[in-house]
Please model this.
Amino acid sequence: LKSVGAYVDPKDWNALISDKDTILIDTRNDYEVKIGTFQGAVDPDTKTFTEFPAWVANNRKILEGKKVAMFCTGGIRCEKATAFVKGLGIEDVFHLKGGILKYLEDIPAEKSLWEGECFVFDERVSVGHGLIEGEAELCRACRSPLTAQAKLSEKYEAGVSCPSCFDTRTEEDRARYAERQKQIRLAQKRGERHIGK
Model:
């Protein structure tokens, strides 16, 4: 905590990220970025946060001499990311205090530079401004967030597959997921909730 980047309140965030000398980095994983991010943010396209240091090493030249602003869902990952970047000798490092969630809570939609929804790790799946529950759903096969566009794909089948996992699952997997989905529907008809594997 002694070496984290400077905290920036949501009310001051827009000015920082609108500065042409600022590089804005989304430190979240690719499936989170897919449903929403700030305008102009760099997406490191990481599957897990453990890939972030390698991304920084490969892109250090674009960070040097710039203000580096980072953000994440609640602000904790940013503390780690900014401390890591500062540890490399890059001094002007900032992060959004309270993360995206605090920004969406405090900043009205008409003044916002946020685009889309914010993935959250609970049954809401995503939230928008005012922390209102979003429209994203989870693929029950791979747990990736589903946008309305993903649900239009020929690779989407509720509870069975989506564009993110279709090519990585076998027919046997999909048959198993389809059976689970059938049991969920049957339980719902009985007014129950299916709890299964």
